[in-house]
User: What shape does this take?
Amino acid sequence: MESRKYLSAKGLLNLVCAEFQKINSPRTLLKKTSNPIKLVDCLMSGLAMFGMKFPSLLQFEEQAKKGGLTKRNLRTLYQVDQVPSDTYLRERLDELDPRNLRTIFKTIFSNVQRGKVLEAYSYLDGYYLMPMDMTGFFSSPTIHCKNCCVKQHNRAKLKFAKNLPSQANKSRANTYILHGDIDTTWRLFHVNRKKEIIEFDIKKLPMLEVYLKGRSQSDLSSLDIEEIKAVIEEYHNTQHKIRLTYHHNMMCAAIVHPDIKAVIPFAPEPVLKADGARKNDCEQKSAKRLIEDIRREHPHLKLIVVQDALGATCPNLQELQFADMRFIVGVKPDRNKELFKLVNDSNCQTYEHITEDKKSHRYRYINGVSLNQSGLEVNFLEYWETDKKGFIQHFSWVSDIKITDENVYQIMKGGRANWRIENDTFNTIKNQGYHFSHNFGHGYQHLCSVFGMLMMLAFFIDQVQEHCCALFKNARKKFRTKKALWVTMKSLFLGYSINSWEDLFNAIANGYKETELIPNTS
Assistant: This one.
């Protein structure tokens, strides 16, 4: 098919380069040069670094500085006319808004659609499974930027207790417990790192006495409670050394199929701390932004969103309904107590069967139950799997798809497909040669997020080739692991003059002429 030519390395990189050229540089170069390095060369160089699985930007620059073969291969394979230094590359990409890269993902996805690739991923009534989850790709106790999320490890926590606390095993370390009412004097307790409860002299915090004197817990407004928390946190921070971790996360989504290894990722959504914000960005807010972006970019795509139990909230499920997306979302008894109590008090349908692998599958389901007091109606499915050795696994989900004996097995497999975003996406980019957790450069504005999106773009290109490109598949068959393929690709990239991607993959699949190593003794 004509559209399939765009699903090879050459075709995909041509598309990417064309889209990169459309991005307007945020920088007006102060230093006028006769031949400035273009933004597209910086972006393609960054993509080449991740495409060839270099472990660091320094190693990439050192190889590029040597000139000769590496620079020539960057030109023939990645269309890089001028290779920027590591400092110049960081500076240019640091200024770029990562949202400018979303269009590239959409362009590749459109060609995947035109190439009829999505037909194999159709799962339930013409819908596609789309698991979503968040992953971290940068963490440091010192290096940070204004967009970093911040985790305070020994942060003070506040609880109000109706009874005098006797055990600390239900409270986390660094928890302050306030006990008292209108008839008794307020008392303050502290749970230390050894999980010991120690009564604290409340007179050490005179401002606390001001808020509490003559008042019961019911008299305290939400604003009063926030002020009390601030007083305790300020005292705690002066008494204990604060340990911070700065980090960047991304909310990711991909189309998957339980029977297909390759996944089709969407452009990820960086999880950032907004300028001036006191609180970190959270998983649900970033998920909301990603859902809005995907629906805007793919308005007619029939999607079933698969999420873990963190997504089982009314605002999130209503957001999915508003976006015209179906859902299969995990639930847990400790997080969704009202739902499980309602289900346990109801007459549920049951169904059992055994598959060819000798596994026993048992289901309990009910349609049209309330998720919680909000009144949002969902369909509930609980599932037990027992293998031939007697090992039992237990899962439960809510969905807006009506559950029947005929589709319960597919809904179950769809819910369990959530692990595909964790294993076939996050595990691959972290542990199979992509160096996703390595700090390639943090920058002052957007560099970390831009690098994260470029690495996901390199992963997207590899996934499309793994599913569609015969040349790539033939090369992949030669190795037990992907890491071994990446090592061979990089060694040929550094040691041979390569005229095309076809030559590279054919050489790996069919062998290549060895050359004699002759030192330069002149």
